[in-house]
Amino acid sequence: MSAAGFHGSKYCWMNGKIMSTDEALVSPMESIHLGIFEGIKAYVKGDVLGEGELSIFGWKGHIDRLWRSAEVNGLTMPYSKDELLEAVRACIIRNDYTKNTYIQPRIWPKGSWGSTDSHVVVPVWPFETLLGKGNPLFGEERRFMVSSWRRISSDALPPQAKSWANYLNSMHAIREARRCGYDNAVFLDNRGFVSEGTLACLMMVRDGKVITTPVTASILESVTRGAFIEFIPDLGYPVEVRDVTRVELYASDEAFLCGTGGECTPITSVDDIKFGSGYPGPITTEIAEYYAEILAGNVKKYKHWLTSV
Question: How far apart are CA 46 and CA 178, in angstroms?
């Protein structure tokens, strides 16, 4: 199986060395579906819409979660966290990337089912951000529905771990949403409370407060969500972490996704019930613009979240 096609990346890091993605081959008998991964982004310093030197956002939080996911899924990490960081740096430099870059360490067992030895591959590729003041992508309308599929519960699979198996749950919900004419979907948990989006955590705005669902609602333990909970009060908006009913979601003034991939993505409506009178909502917009400044290293208070490439 070839690693080629990593969104145009010429080189990846695999099992200890940089190689061409066309040469990153494994047997078709490998248990890749049992693997774990991590989603991390590096942003351009000074301006997320620019070009230049890069900083990795939330490296420690992401790499700690990768190690937890490995432990939960019985995988051995054959490299240290520092070695993996150097691998990421080397891969970005070898690809000569000077724009926002996505980093996705992937780990899966070598050989047969039950093996604890692991392959490690790190592909990287450029991505287009939704963030940055005046970015037209941010304001695109996004209609969501509440999926008939429930978010996987922790007595079936570990939703807090970032594994490929968990994402099949999301793919069913995404396919359903698109068949029904929506852009994406929101999950409920097995209790009937709001959980998260299919690929990112969910935050709502109501009466000047930002509300997000708890880890006990079968959400991924999101690094980005943790950052949002910490920095949003800087803008004067309190954050509540608690269970949310479907009806309360409908009654929100604004709603948005937060995550590595989704960054800060405004949502127009859920089940054709629009949020507020204007879109994107003013608080969501303010949060997104502040987040972009944090990612660019322009907010001194949060520079410790960034790791230079």
Answer: 37
Per-residue pLDDT of the chain (309 residues; tens, 9 = 90+): 334 444 668 888 888 888 888 877 776 666 677 788 999 999 999 999 999 999 999 999 999 999 999 988 888 889 999 999 999 999 999 999 999 999 999 998 887 666 667 889 999 999 999 999 999 999 999 999 999 999 999 888 888 888 888 899 999 999 999 999 999 999 999 999 999 999 999 999 999 999 999 999 999 999 999 999 999 999 999 999 999 999 999 999 999 999 999 999 999 999 999 999 899 999 999 999 999 999 999 999 999 999 999
Q: Kindly name the residue from 41, 99, 162, 274 that is annotated as catalytic.
A: 162
Domain residues for 185? 143-298
Looking at the structure, tell me whether residues 117 and 149 fall in a common domain: no
Q: Is 274 a catalytic residue?
A: no
User: What strand order describes the sheet that includes 40-44?
Assistant: 124-126, 101-103, 40-44, 54-57, 306-308
- Residue 182 maps to which CATH number? 3.20.10.10
Look up the pTM and report it: 0.92
What is the Cα–Cα distance from 255 to 275, expressed in whole angstroms? 7
Which helix (DSSP H) or strand (DSSP E) does residue 29 occupy? none
Interatomic CA distance for residues 286 and 232, integer angstroms: 9
Sequence-ordered alpha helix ranges (H) in the chain: 59-72, 81-94, 164-179, 223-231, 246-250, 282-295
CATH code of 17's domain? 3.30.470.10
Give the span between the Cα atoms of 272 and 268, in whole angstroms. 9
Please tell me whether residues 156 and 253 are part of one structural domain.
Answer: yes
